[in-house]
């Protein structure tokens, strides 16, 4: 394992633990407004580690909650895309022939589409529903997964144990779910780590535009948006969430790249 | 060549129809109508409005009517900007986005390709690693984080450049938006270009060219550049989509009066027809530009045969 994997996995774990634990310990909460303490600079003296926002809310707790929401959305969205992608790719690869050709042609044509605009349309049409954000982001991120999984399945389906299952009369859906899918785990793990930053990107993009998480709840994208409005007087409101978002995205990208190289080099041996 | 272009054009039609139908159905599936307001309207007036906008017809008929309108370039009236049609709004706002987007694309290509070639020539040097680390950061950090940070640095702290569009927006007002929009693409293109240039420089025909005594500059210029450009060319499609998406953020942050800003405003105002119209416009644009890239690919790479 390369150093990049260890460093980024470590950083992400630490960030996640702090984000989960810190709001419980902190004397402040994310909702209470304190108008005698608006736009406090970050520091320990005021009991506001990251300062306060224009409504006097504690930014440390808000940022940590933002990280929680961002990570949660990303993980759930990745699971949605994983389920769709694996089932779709495994079916196309296993069934093969004309079904495969049509299914993959469909994926190809979806690649050309500006999905983010459809997600925005979805957000406009339906109320800004928390659950919907997960599903929408997951629904657009499954294409890569489907392609990779299909490629793997093509080689898996020629293996003897699949033939054995077929001879024993196991049905096609059962073979896909019980025999093909579990053997895809290695590849899938790598691509999930690469899907997570994409999901984070979409969620924070939507929240930044005001179409994602709604006040008083927050996410890193929403915090960056709030920071933009105050950046001339309170630059920390922008700098802190922006830096954290950048660090989280960088770590996931390095982790995914590193894992891919790690698995690639192993499979070449 | 002509036959291939025509076939590809025909092939794009189902994709476009699918996009339009999906977008149309999503809007129609919306709970509540576009004219719902706090004040309840008398039923006669409601019926009148529904008739005026053809909302009382069955869904398939509405869709056909919308398609017919599209064929004539008519995207319907905007629900919020009462005096304009969606077509007029797009026609007014798009030139600004086009200007911004094409400048960003040009900048991304020039700087990205240049940096990539340079890094490939200095492979594994300290400079190469530094450039690639910066590129990785550029890919990871989203536009909506880069944009405000650049404004904070260059407009608020250093005061070198204007932060927004106030004062009509001269050439100076364009600098920051264009750079912001181009940065992620520069990073991506540089990485692609570096990898493919390293690949090409290791191939036999380059060794032959060098053996014949050609200098590095000539080898790159006359032999290596063209084959190494192919991956960059096939990245142009995603790059265009990326710049379109980015322009939504950049126009919002810098207050550029372009199509992206109308899109966000329309989305926040729940202006169904406007958002629907812009989604269809963007999708059509991307499908057509992808087609153009594919055709261009065949022109540059003679190994690609049209089937």
Layout of strands and helices, then pairs:
The complex is a heterodimer of chains A (269) and B (307).
Chain A: H1 3-25, H2 59-95, H3 97-111, H4 115-125, H5 130-140, H6 142-156, H7 160-167, H8 172-180, H9 185-208, H10 220-229, H11 236-268
Helix pairs in contact in A: 1-2, 1-11, 2-3, 2-5, 2-6, 2-8, 2-9, 2-10, 4-5, 6-9, 7-8, 9-10, 9-11, 10-11
Chain B: H1 2-28, H2 43-52, H3 59-71, H4 86-121, H5 126-140, H6 143-157, H7 171-201, H8 204-211, H9 216-254, H10 259-269, H11 272-300
Helix pairs in contact in B: 1-11, 4-5, 4-7, 4-9, 4-11, 5-7, 6-7, 6-9, 7-9, 8-9, 9-10, 9-11, 10-11
Walk me through this protein's architecture.
The complex is a heterodimer of chains A (269) and B (307). Chain A is mainly alpha-helical and 269 residues long. In chain A, 73% of the residues lie in helices and 0% in strands. Chain A contains 11 helices and no strands. Chain A is elongated, with a radius of gyration of 22 Å. The mean pLDDT of chain A is 81. In chain B, helix 4 runs antiparallel to helix 5 and helix 6 crosses helix 9. The model of chain B has no long low-confidence stretch (mean pLDDT 81). Chain B is 76% helix and 0% strand. Chain B is mainly alpha-helical. The termini of chain B are close together. Chain B is built from 11 helices and no strands. Chains A and B meet through helix 4, helix 9, helix 10 and helix 11 of A and helix 1, helix 5, helix 6, helix 9 and helix 10 of B.
């Amino acid at each position: 394992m390369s150093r990049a994997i260890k460093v980024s996995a470590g950083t992400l774990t630490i960030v996640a633990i702090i984000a989960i634990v810190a709001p419980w310990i902190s004397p402040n909460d994310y909702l209470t407004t304190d108008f005698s303490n608006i736009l406090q600079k970050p520091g320990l003296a005021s009991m506001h580690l990251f300062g306060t926002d224009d409504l006097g809310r504690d930014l440390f707790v808000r940022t940590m909650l933002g990280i929680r929401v961002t990570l949660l959305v990303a993980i759930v969205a990745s699971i949605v895309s994983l389920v769709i992608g694996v089932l779709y790719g495994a079916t196309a690869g296993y069934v093969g022939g004309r079904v495969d050709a049509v299914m993959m042609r469909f994926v190809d044509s979806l690649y050309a589409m500006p999905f983010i605009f459809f997600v925005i349309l979805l957000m406009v049409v339906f109320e800004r529903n928390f659950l919907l954000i997960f599903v929408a982001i997951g629904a657009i991120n499954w294409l890569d997964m489907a392609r990779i999984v299909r490629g793997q399945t093509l080689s898996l389906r020629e293996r003897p144990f699949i033939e054995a299952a077929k001879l024993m009369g196991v049905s096609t859906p059962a073979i896909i779910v019980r025999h093909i899918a579990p053997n895809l785990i290695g590849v899938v793990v790598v691509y999930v780590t690469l899907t997570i930053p994409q999901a984070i990107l979409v969620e924070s993009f939507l929240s930044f535009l005001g179409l994602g998480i709604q006040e008083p709840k927050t996410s890193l994208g929403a915090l960056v948006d709030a920071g933009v409005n105050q950046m001339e007087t309170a630059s920390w409101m922008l700098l802190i969430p922006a830096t954290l978002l950048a660090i989280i995205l960088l770590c996931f990208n390095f982790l995914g790249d590193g894992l891919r190289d790690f698995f690639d080099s192993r499979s070449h041996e | 060549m002509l036959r291939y272009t025509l076939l590809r054009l025909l092939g794009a039609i189902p994709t476009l129809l699918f996009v339009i139908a999906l977008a149309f159905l999503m809007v129609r599936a919306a709970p509540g109508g576009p004219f719902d307001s706090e004040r309840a309207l008398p039923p006669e007036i409601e019926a009148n409005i529904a008739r005026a906008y053809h909302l009382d017809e069955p869904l398939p008929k509405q869709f056909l009517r919308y398609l017919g309108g599209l064929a004539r370039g008519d995207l319907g009236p905007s629900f919020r900007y009462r005096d304009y049609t969606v077509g007029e709004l797009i026609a007014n706002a798009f030139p600004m986005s086009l200007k911004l987007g094409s400048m960003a694309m040009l900048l991304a290509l020039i700087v990205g390709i240049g940096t990539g070639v340079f890094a490939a020539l200095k492979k594994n040097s300290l400079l190469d690693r530094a450039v690639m680390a910066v590129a990785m950061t550029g890919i990871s950090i989203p536009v909506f984080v880069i944009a405000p940070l650049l404004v904070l640095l260059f407009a608020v702290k250093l005061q070198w450049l204007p932060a927004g569009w106030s004062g009509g927006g001269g050439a100076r007002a364009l600098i920051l938006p264009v750079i912001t929009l181009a940065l992620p693409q520069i990073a991506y293109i540089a990485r692609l270009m570096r990898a493919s240039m390293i690949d090409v420089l290791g191939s036999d025909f380059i060794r032959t060219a060098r053996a014949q005594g050609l200098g590095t500059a000539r080898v790159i210029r006359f032999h290596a550049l063209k084959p190494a450009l192919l991956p960059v060319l096939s990245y142009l499609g995603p790059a265009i989509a990326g710049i379109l998406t980015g322009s939504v953020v950049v126009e919002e942050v810098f207050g550029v009066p372009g199509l992206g800003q109308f899109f966000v405003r329309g989305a926040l105002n729940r202006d169904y027809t406007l958002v629907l119209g812009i989604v269809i416009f963007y999708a059509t644009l991307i499908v057509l530009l992808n087609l153009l890239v594919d055709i261009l690919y065949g022109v540059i790479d003679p190994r690609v045969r049209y089937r």
